[in-house]
Hints:
Layout: H1 12-33, H2 38-59, H3 71-100, H4 103-108, H5 116-142, H6 150-179, H7 182-188, H8 193-197, H9 210-217, H10 220-232, H11 245-248, H12 250-275
Amino acid sequence: MAFELPAPPATVAGRVRWALADGTTVVWRNLVQLKSQPGELVGAVVFPAIMIVLFGYVFGSAIKVPGGGNYREYLLPGLFAMTTLTSLMSTMMAVATDASKGVMDRFRSMPMARSAVPFGQVGADILVGLVGMVILAACGLAVGWRIHHGILSALAAFGLLILMRYALSWAGVLFGLLVKNEETADQLVPLIFPFSMLSNSFVPTAGMPAWLRTIADWNPVSAAVAAARDLFGNPGVPRSGHIALPLQHPVAATLVWSVGLIMIFAPLAVHRYRTVER
């Protein structure tokens, strides 16, 4: 006698509760898995300190902040954005690993909401990202980074960064499902770093060639960095001269980019999970 999966709830509210309950279970499963992968936790602790030393003290001595100011204060919003971008890579790797090992097939055979697995992957990444963000902020405070516009503006800045990370995590889920192979996903990781480097994260874009500056200024990462600098009160926010539209209104631009990415990648990721075959 063939085993039949139970029918999903008939009401929209029931489907939402079902998806949230199953998604929370997947979040917990992914967090528990970190016990067997301590390298990820060690990397979350060590990576921020390495980046601050490397960029803040080695490269920072040769970089002048537009309008003056401490380079490490200029740097920290860029590092926050860089760690936000890593969500795409980490989620892509996690999903591709589960797909290659047949875990995704096992999930699809279980009586659970189809959106729960992508939701759980994204939720777990957000929680891990929050830990990394707290550690990075603590390292920044230790080397002289400060918040100058009050706690509410700072919380707004962190909220924007988390929203951007959430959006990029959905992209990571989709790419992981498309790749379905952890070795291939690992080879694609270096291709993502240029998105962080080709921005205003570490150096001003004013010294770039015009065509390259245009790309950097319209990079969603640049909008997130400019928004964080503005809300934290850190130096490097452009005030005069030719300023690209996203950098004139970086908070609004970051919201638009994030919501747009979620609207594109979340439905595509859920659809891909429902239809993918090994």
